[in-house]
């Protein structure tokens, strides 16, 4: 899948990184998500799905993460639709406040999904494409370090927050920590994906795209190289505006 990234400076060393929304990809992703939700709706179904295949541990971990992510999305939808003034509605307000404190860089890195095999980077004409590549590489490398650390920290805190379930109140700290674990995991995987896309590692990324091609039965012959200064990397192109 192809993704378009928009990059531009805001003030001094502060830059903005955005992934533009592809409506077609969003629809296909939504339909795929719906299919997965229908086929894996309980822990029993999840166990059958994991135990019945011989996939690597990392892929089974992705299945588990997606399962709990769907559970959290449905629970969040229930809180959002709760009547005004109810306890669920107040919990939803608290959740919105907490979500507003999530850093934009984390949201950007989470948008780099595992399905992305090439990117088109759009940037102002006043910028050097090599500088743009360095900044993308920097945010990706920084993300791998930060989100790996916070992911392990969130996993460590999960057992302690789950102990609060004995209280006669909704266990908001546990669900928040569960969401943060999921969020840091996705941001970590997005950082690793972006780093491979924009780094000078043609052999490494070639093995990834070949593996994906074999899994999906698709070819990437329609990918065109736009960045003539970067031979051997047809998965990244730069477009100046």
UniProtKB/TrEMBL annotation:
Pfam families reported in the protein's UniProt record: Mit_KHE1
TM annotation in the entry: 150-169
Keyword list, A-Z: Membrane, Transmembrane, Transmembrane helix
Top-rank taxon, per record: Eukaryota
Annotated InterPro entries: Mit_KHE1
GO BP: any one term: proton transmembrane transport
A GO CC annotation given for this chain: mitochondrial inner membrane
Protein name: Uncharacterized protein
Native source organism of the sequence: Aquilegia coerulea
């Amino acid at each position: 899948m192809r993704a378009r990234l928009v990059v531009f400076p805001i003030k001094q060393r502060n830059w903005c990184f955005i992934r533009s929304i592809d409506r077609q990809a969003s629809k296909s992703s939504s339909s795929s998500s719906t299919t997965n939700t229908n086929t894996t709706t309980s822990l029993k179904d999840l166990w059958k799905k994991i135990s019945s295949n011989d996939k690597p541990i990392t892929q089974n971990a992705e299945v588990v993460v997606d399962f709990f992510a769907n559970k959290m999305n449905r629970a969040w939808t229930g809180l959002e639709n709760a009547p005004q003034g109810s306890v669920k509605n107040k919990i939803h307000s608290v959740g919105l406040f907490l979500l507003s404190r999530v850093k934009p860089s984390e949201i950007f890195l989470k948008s780099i999904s595992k399905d992305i095999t090439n990117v088109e980077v759009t940037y102002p004409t006043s910028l050097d494409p090599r500088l743009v590549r360095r900044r993308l590489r920097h945010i990706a490398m920084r993300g791998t370090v930060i989100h790996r650390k916070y992911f392990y920290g969130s996993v460590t805190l999960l057992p302690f927050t789950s102990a609060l379930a004995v209280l006669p109140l909704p266990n908001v700290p546990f669900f928040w920590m569960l969401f943060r674990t999921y969020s840091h995991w996705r941001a970590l995987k997005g950082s690793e994906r972006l780093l491979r896309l924009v780094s000078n590692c043609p052999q490494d990324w070639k093995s990834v795209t070949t593996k994906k091609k074999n899994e999906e039965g698709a070819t990437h012959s329609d990918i065109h190289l736009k960045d003539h200064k970067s031979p051997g990397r047809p998965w990244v192109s730069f477009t100046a505006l």
